[in-house]
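pasting for ref
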Amino acid sequence: MSKFTRRLTLTLAAATALASAATPLVAQDFAVTGATVATGDARDRVGPGTVVVRSGRIVAVGPDVAVPAGVTVIDGTGMWITPGLFAPLTDLGLFDVGGVQESNDRAARNSTFSAALDYSVAVNPINQHIMTSRAGGVTRASVVGYPAGSIFAGQGALIDLGADPDVVTRARAFQMIAIGETGARLAGGSRVAVHALLRNALREAREFGDRAQIAGSASRPAEIRRGDDLPLDPRLVDDLAERGDDVELSRFDAAALRPVVQGTQPLYVVADRSADILQALALRQEFPKLDLVLVGAAEGWMVADRIAAAGVPVIAPPLIDLPERFEQLAATQSNIGRMVDAGVTVALGPFMDMEQPRNAPQYAGNLVGLQNVPGATGLTWSEAFAAITSVPAQISGMGGQAGVLAPGALGDVVIWDGDPLEVSSTPVRVFVDGVEQPLTNHQTRLRERYRDLDEQTLPKAYSH
């Protein structure tokens, strides 16, 4: 069998699995009883209870919940039930093999556009990374690519990991940029170039939006005018007044940044050095409507009080304990614990560049164990679990809907065979929107293939 034939066979098998899994799209009514319940709320204690899901949403959670008649009962004795994990900032569905450019949509190095790049159009629902993450208990994620040709990575999307073709739940959910060392390299070799480029871009977007409103009010019917919370209608773009010769952004990029300066689209800023973090926070002095989210923040603990006072959430990696770059000289594994103690809202991430979202429970568990290290600052169990469920959902704009077991929340439920923050535990059943999901993927098929392999079928070379 040729390489092409094998690849085609695997692709068709994945597509067939997706189609068969997508057939029962009607949400199931079920209740899990007798399990240890972790709601995802950092303030809640873990304890025994019952969770009831009907019509794709959670309707009841608690120790004394009665199961309605006609609802399928799942015996959870000896197991744990939790909300699905929410992975902030992933590249799920954007590449198949990182080293094969044809399968890799994570970066648009040669594009004439930057802020306008919309990663929702490239997400592949039958991607194996989505399947393996789902098998690890991940039910929601945000997806974006890398800054490559500009400091602007583009517009990220929110997805669910259900086995159906409609994985994108919100396109153009946020904009991401890089400052610090990465931004400096992309902007011209210095941080001063980053901030000149960034401020100029935001000013152009603001002016572009103002002129768009004027042009729309004066020359277009009301049905195509757009409010401050929506992207510019493309039919308006051609009718805008000339912007002059001193602009850097294309009209498409300026239109994409308009929701950012209006505060209706979050701006994720990648920054590690404490000084860069303070410069990111200072952007609000000139653009007060910015809805900022910090990404990375390796030295965040040094300015945690300033971050907390600004009310800016952080998506931070949990395991940076040694500097990998000059902008991480003050890195410490206690970074997240110290920021949380200072009142900063922190989610664990990003999960990009081969960092798998299904490892999130292990990383959260490490932060719990860190509390036992003299002189270190970790998290409580509930704080750590919230950092991979309810907190990233809140940062992504889905607070109260995802990452929690609470009445009215989406029916994203995971049943584990033990404590989810223990590396020996694994999901046994996963539900997205109340629909049970397949947990098979290339890895599970290979496991089953070689688990009981008949050695008589092996070539002679394997007999010695």
